[in-house]
Each structure stands twice: as C-alpha cells, then as structure tokens.
Amino acid sequence: MMRRVKRESEVKQSSSELSVIQKDASAAESDSVKNFYKTEFEKNCGEMGKSGAVTLSVDSFGLMKDPVTKREETVWVYTFKNTASKVTVKVISYGATILSVEVPDKNDVLQDVVMGFDNMDGYFNPLNPYFGATVGRVANRISNGKFSLDGKDYQVAKNWNNLHHLHGGIVGFDKFNWSGFIDENTVVLSHFSPDGFEGYPGDLLVQVRYELTENDALKINFSATTSKLTPVNLTNHSYFNLGGHDSGSDEIYKHLVSINADKITETDSNSIPTGKLVDVGGTGFDLRSEKPLGIAFKATPLNGYDDNFCVTRYDEDSVTFVARALHPPSGRFLEVYSDQPGVQFYTANFLPDPKDSAGPKLHGKGNGLYEKHGSFCFETQKFPDSVNNVNFPSTILKPGNTYRHVCVYKFGCQKN
Which residues are catalytically annotated? Predict the structure, then answer.
C-alpha cells in the first residue's frame, strides 16, 4: 500500500504565513594534530585548542563497556565555547554524539536546543532513539535487510519491526565508544568496524571531525575507507527544538521550516522507497518556502514527517543550502548545509505519545519529558535503500576510494 500524498488544496493555509528564504554556505579545515589519550591528560583535563573566540576543552563523561570486547572504557565529553556569542556545543565519544547545543535567544537567555541525556544510563536506555548520534554503517533503511554486491547476496539485521534494516543494525556505530584526538580546534573521532560485523562486507575505518566556528557553524566532516566493496551512508541524528530541548510539541508547531527540495522519495507504508521520485509541488511536502510546522503537519498523510527530501543542487561536489528552521518566539534559527543529495526530515513521530497514558515515558536532560512531535531531525545523507535502487545516488564505497560527507549546522538568533 502506497502512502497517499495530500494535495495542498485539501488543507486550509494562509498565504500570509509563507515567505521565501535564500541562504549561502561556507567551509574551512584545520591541520595540526595532538593526541590526548595519555595518562597525564586524564589527570589534567583542560583547554586543548583555541581559535579566536572559540575554545575547546575535554573531560570525562562516564564509563561504558565495549559491546564486543566488554572492556570498560572512559567516555569523553568535548566542550566548544564561543566566548563572543555564548554558543556552547558538547560532543561525547560514545557514538560520536552531539550531547548539547546551547544558543542564546533574543533576550540573550541560553537554552539547550538538542535532546539528550545527563549521563550514560540515559544513553543505554532502550528507548533512546539515536539522540545526537553518528549512525551507520548505513543510515536509514535497507529493504528486508538484503542487498547484493558483485553477485554476492548479503543479509543484515532486520532491526526495524523484524522487517527491515535501520541505522546500521542492532549494534550500530552509535553503540560504540569512538577513539579521539584533538586537531587544533577540531575534535576527531574514529571507529573501526571489522569485515562481517552486522553482516556488512569489508573492514571499515570511519572518522568524524567536529568543529565550531566563530560564526556558530558546527561543521561535521565524515570520512571512511574500506577493504572490500561495501555500502556506506553516514549521518548525524540530532533532535532539535529551538524553543528548548524539553519545550515539547507546542513549541515545535511554532517553528517555520523550509527545505531546498523539489522532490521526495516515494515510500510504502513501511517507509521503504518505491524507487520513484515525487514532485513536492501542491503537496504537504512542498517546504520550498517556509511554513509553520503546526500547519504543514496537517497536509501530510501521517500528520508528521519521516521522509527523504531530494536536495536541489547545482554542483554535486559543493556544499549547498539544505534547510532552515526558525523559532519566532525565541528568535533562534538553525540553517543546514551539506554536500549530500538527500536529507531525512523527521519530526519525532515515534517518541512516546502523550495521549497514551499507559505507554512508556522518556525523560532526558534535567528530567525533561521527551514526547511525540517534541523535536525534529535534519539527517543529511544519500537516499534510503540506495543499495537496492540503481537510479538513486550510489552508497557503494570501493577499496582505494574515500567516502566523504560534509554537514554544517549553523545556529543564530533573529533579534528583530
């Protein structure tokens, strides 16, 4: 059964609530390397990098056991601080995860705008829906957990409703403590995934670089190399609410969102692509001009989004404007830039439903309650199930080549 795409004429919407936005992108890199995994460092956690107004420090966050070796390891937290703007970003080595992003509002009041947990126990919670994590080896879905490469069939875990593969499997990259070092004002986190793990072919070495710039752009650079032909499709799975991480769906509905996409990938009732690309014009998926989410939701078949938008790009190798979200009450905004052809726009449809009084509850940082439609994700990536759709951008990485992916989350505040 295909999901029916509602036409915009089926939903009342005021044209005064729509406006067109245009944004640009920028990028930069740093070089010098300093390894911090040393005993003296552990005793003297301090400032490790500085670039203008942005400082970088590191400390311990907690302990975990490696899911394979069962060895106990220290999880590190890295803190970027922009002393000029007051924007603060924290990243932990567990899952190469964005822990928090504090952004001031129009009154200079700081608020954390991403969902997460205060300690490792929270991240071990089976209800944790990949908050802030780097997911892979293949993000999003693989139909029936099957694919073929060079005439050989592969079966990976059906960890989504026992039907399909999701976000790298049962023990994906989000479940490991990544190794790290500091490269001037950049945090570099690495993970090695051996041949055959979770059913994937090839030894894969993955690296994620995080950097906060002076203009409050959080730059994420993914890269990977392999020993065998293998699919690779990485993304960051941060859940944003610019009204505050625990401010709930009421504040999400106030957000104005735009996405630079003329098409989406059509999916079936299990969110598996049919292989067709569908024009967004005249549907609830037309977010090319900004719309209030509370109104936009009503024009979607499922009253919410969990869809891959095909980014409109003019140069396949360049970083392009992808999306923008503005929370008018606070003035906070988020802009997303990437070199990837797709972005999965997800509005936390599967978080606990507040209407289900007998259902589970999910508490996050500061004991905040996280519920359905209380946040959104912009997951830059190649299209879902690309490995089974030859007409989609390829996710296949060959030995000798390097997978690369740039994602930029630019934060700011409109004070007027």
Answer: 237, 379
